[in-house]
Specification:
signal; AB_hydrolase_fold; mainly beta; Rossmann fold; 5 domains; Secreted protein; globular; about 900 residues
Length: about 900
């Protein structure tokens, strides 16, 4: 199943409601819905727009890259989930009736947190082919990018004053770990490689404090030196003539729960700050700032991509390429014109949905003239953490763990033969990272087979296996439903379908239950959904085709089909028939083999991943300069595949265009609510950086979280535009909101430009008077065994939430004690001696009112104990922002 990502900070009102204050005991029809799960507690609360569903974990959630989701019985997220500052409360707001919480789960990195055990321990494989068969025929390269070079290296560190970041109370540290050739090494100009680690725990040691929030900086604990975890790659690159620096981002990790974008902008700004510093160092250290390569791991990958897409060509340094290791992509962004390698660890136990694939797929249609390479590299047997030595057990300074978890002997478990050891994973990572640096910084074409889908191996890989698939890089592509249509009269089943993860029949490319794909968009996610060509057959010889709007020239080139094999249908065999514009045709066997097999995986792993099927057309007796259509011809009795695109590809990588895409930012606006009964409308500003040479199309999500939920609004900016707006409706009322009402607006790019700051919105400033609350004692005198009942009543100005607190205070006469109220005390305060007076309670309880529940009754039971005690008294003090009132009730023996 695919995990999703909208982990936004809860609003202040929700934080106060959920942060430990016990609700008042209410009349039965006002009781909030709730339920205990095997692990944690569910609660449903009514809001203006629907229902707020929360799950409270019994312990703090682990700090990692992925974000938790609340999913339904089919495994589909209800929307973008939020996690509060305590890292224990997960919530999502839904419209309409509240779902049955017994049917819901909280999923993080492929594991259901509300259910005992680790779902990743399952070992049921839907694909049983061995890895060697999947990568058969890969050639051995003469150039091994992981081999150390001829230069001696030196290591140093620097610390600069911290940088203040928006939304974070504490400044972010400026710390760099530098590995470079020695000063007198005759390397010539040295490209600069910058590493950024991901989201990981920040503190360790005696007296461990919180991972996030006010526990930062780490005191008295030590900081986890995550930035030192790539020294093994830095040493290799420095020996080959590169200057490298790995920067620390613990301050962001400790505080990014506050930020709607998960800290991506802050990470990009930190990269900017370090590169600006390197402008002062470059001359003395022979650094070539026209060739900067960024390498980001986990959330650092998303931060790197954000820096790449928004860094202009006149910044004083040029991003020549980027490598994203197991990255997150909460913003649905890519970096047009910047060569990109996205590394997908097959056994990733953190970013388990392999969302790094989106950096390839989402770039396909954005800028029509973008010829930069976008490559996804699957590293079989690799997990999320072991690319960083400081996240690897046994060699890390701080406690570390295998992120895959689950049964060690099951598929992807650390004892299974599918897994790489930590050392093997580092060697494979060095091959990919160093290879990409050579390709992007020095144009080394020898390493291109690692990234262009043709496949290769070198000695440093050992038993590790890689597969890749790419778009761009000089390819001339054809896209199903855009510039390619279905051919007439197929004998196999053939259709164009939408790559959305719906299992309902219709226009979706429906996946089989229990399978997932990193190429498919989740239902409810408001981003571009592309079309795929789906072909299925039930007999050998059946065929179906795709016809190109403009003929494809494959002279001297290979033909590539990015092909997803249905994991549930299993391995299959196909031939490929090529037809030219005159009708001449030839049927060929792919050079990658006629046999197509899905990737091995278990239920909670992604398997439906697009492999590169390659056809060499040179032997076909057709006009190769005018290829009109391609057909798949069944050579097995059954099968089902999806083709994402078809392209003619060369054997060398052309230089990327020296361009940057126009950047679109969405802003924030504050408006007065007003008292008119008519709905208000606010105009949220959009600004453009760079020249829009053609129209840009975007999608705005109004009222959701991130690119999820809400209302989808099409936005078109004409050529030459420098700004625009999104119209956002808001409701006016006569009730008082304790906190300003906010409507989020998120932008997603479709064509012509790329988003940067993609989350903005409207703050509606309340102008209604504060409510008045009355306290009415319903039982001024009760007999032992009867409940004390006091009503808290708000007037017509009560809005979504108005906090009223009450506590026991010392009053007149003999007072009630803990034993006099039975289990009620234990439920709210815990165990205490029966002789303890009620006014010794340490904290107040809540009796909150709202527009949906303007009358709340505090019910305190009394126990009939059979002892002659006479009349006793209980006094309570109620308080809100404008009211304080004491009430006393007599309890008659």
């Amino acid at each position: 199943m695919r995990m999703r990502r909208g982990w936004l900070a809860l609003g202040a009102a929700a934080l106060l409601t959920l942060g430990g204050l016990s609700p008042a005991s209410a009349e039965p029809d006002n009781e909030p819905a709730g339920a205990e799960s095997p692990r944690g507690t569910w609660q449903v609360q009514q809001t203006a727009g629907g229902q707020l569903i929360t799950w409270t974990s019994p312990s703090e959630l682990p700090m990692g890259a992925d974000r938790p989701s609340i999913v339904d019985a089919a495994g589909q997220p209800l929307g973008a989930a939020s996690v509060d500052a305590t890292a224990r409360v997960v919530s999502v707001e839904v419209t309409g009736a509240a779902p049955d919480v017994a049917t819901l789960d909280v999923v993080l990195s492929g594991d259901r947190l509300d259910v005992e055990g680790d779902d990743r321990a399952r070992s049921d494989l839907l694909a049983v082919d061995t890895l060697p068969r999947l990568v058969a025929g890969q050639s051995a390269l003469a150039t091994d990018p992981a081999t150390k070079g001829p230069y001696a290296v030196s290591t140093s560190n620097y610390t600069r004053p911290g940088v203040k970041m928006a939304g974070m109370p504490q400044p972010i540290e400026m710390v760099g770990h530098v590995v470079e050739p020695v000063a007198d090494a005759a390397t010539g100009p040295r490209p600069l490689v910058v590493f950024l680690h991901g989201r990981h725990s920040v503190c360790y040691g005696k007296g461990e404090g919180p991972q996030t929030g006010d526990g930062w900086p780490c005191k008295p604990q030590k900081e986890i030196p995550s930035h030192l975890g790539y020294d093994y790659v830095q040493q290799v690159l420095a020996s080959q003539g590169y200057t490298t620096v790995s920067i620390r981002a613990n301050g962001i990790n400790a505080q990014d729960y506050r930020l709607a974008d998960g800290g991506a902008e802050a990470r990009a700004a930190l990269i900017d700050a370090h590169l600006d510093y390197w402008k002062t160092l470059a001359g003395a250290r022979q650094v070539d700032l026209d060739k900067v390569i960024l390498i980001g791991h986990s959330r650092g990958g998303e931060g790197v991509n954000r820096a790449s897409l928004r860094t202009p060509l006149d910044a004083g340094y040029t991003i020549a390429g980027q490598v994203l290791l197991a990255p997150t992509d909460f913003a649905s962004q890519s970096a047009p014109y910047v060569p990109t390698v996205s590394v997908l660890p097959h056994c990733d136990g953190d970013v388990a949905d392999l969302q790094g694939q989106r950096f390839v797929d989402f770039n396909r249609d954005v800028m029509s003239d973008d010829t930069s390479l976008k490559s996804a590299v699957m590293v079989f047997g690799a997990n999320h953490n072991y690319f960083n030595t400081e996240w690897t057990p046994g060699i890390a300074a701080a406690p570390a763990w295998d992120d895959w978890g689950g049964n060690a002997s099951a598929f992807c478990g650390r004892k299974h033969d599918s897994r790489l050891s930590a050392a093997e994973q580092r060697r494979a990572g060095t091959v990919v990272m160093a290879g990409a640096v050579h390709l992007f910084a020095k144009g080394d074409q020898d390493v291109l087979p690692f990234f262009d889908g043709t496949g290769a191996t070198v000695a440093s890989l050992g038993d590790a296996k890689l597969m890749s698939a790419a778009i761009g890089g000089g390819r001339d592509g054809r896209r199903p439903g855009v510039d390619a249509a279905l051919s007439a009269a197929p004998s196999a089943s053939s259709r164009l379908c939408r790559t959305t993860a719906s299992r309902r029949p219709g226009t979706a490319c429906a996946l089989t239950e229990g399978t997932a794909s990193p190429h498919w968009v989740q239902p409810g996610e408001k981003v571009a959904v592309r079309k795929a060509w789906e072909v299925s057959w039930t007999a050998i010889g059946q065929s179906a085709g795709l016809t190109f709007g403009t003929p494809l020239d494959v002279t001297g080139r290979r033909l590539e089909l990015r092909t997803v094999v249905d994991a549930a249908s299993g391995a299959t065999r196909v031939g490929v028939r090529l037809t030219d514009a005159d009708g001449a045709s030839a049927t060929l066997t792919p050079t990658t083999g006629e046999r197509l097999a899905p990737l091995p995986g278990s239920r909670y792993m992604v398997r439906n991943w697009a492999q590169t099927m390659i056809v060499d057309p040179s032997s076909a007796a057709i006009d190769l300069s005018r290829l009109r259509s391609v057909e798949l011809v069944a050579r097995s009795a059954k099968g089902r595949v999806w083709v994402l695109d078809v392209a003619a590809a060369g054997t060398t990588l052309p230089a990327a265009p020296a361009k940057r895409a126009p950047i679109v930012d969405v802003g924030k606006v504050t408006v007065d609510e007003g008292d008119s009964p008519k709905q208000g409308t606010a105009q949220v500003p959009i600004t453009v950086r760079g020249a829009l040479t053609g129209p840009a199309t975007l999608r705005a999500v109004v009222g959701g979280e991130g690119t999820w939920g809400g209302t989808s609004v099409a936005v078109t900016l004409p050529a030459g535009a420098t700004s625009g707006t999104v119209a956002v409706p808001f409701e006016r009322n006569v009730t008082h909101e304790l906190y300003p009402r906010k409507v989020q607006v998120a932008l997603a790019s479709l064509t012509g430009a790329m988003t940067n700051n993609y989350i903005g919105g409207v703050t509606v400033r309340d102008d209604d008077p504060m409510p008045k609350v009355r306290i009415k004692v319903l039982t001024k005198q009760v007999k032992e065994g009867q409940p004390i009942r006091i009503a808290v009543i708000g007037d017509a100005h009560v809005g979504e939430w108005w906090p009223v607190r009450y506590r026991f205070v010392k009053g007149r006469g003999p007072v009630l004690r803990v034993a006099d109220v039975g289990d009620w005390w234990k439920r709210h305060y815990g165990k205490a001696p029966g002789t303890k007076p009620l006014h010794a309670a340490e904290y107040p309880l809540g009796a909150d009112v709202s527009a949906h529940r303007r009358r709340v009754v505090v019910r305190i039971p009394t126990v009939r104990d059979g002892k002659a005690e006479g009349t006793e008294y209980v006094t309570l003090k109620f308080r809100d922002k404008r009211m304080t009132k004491k009430v006393t009730v007599r309890v008659v023996d």
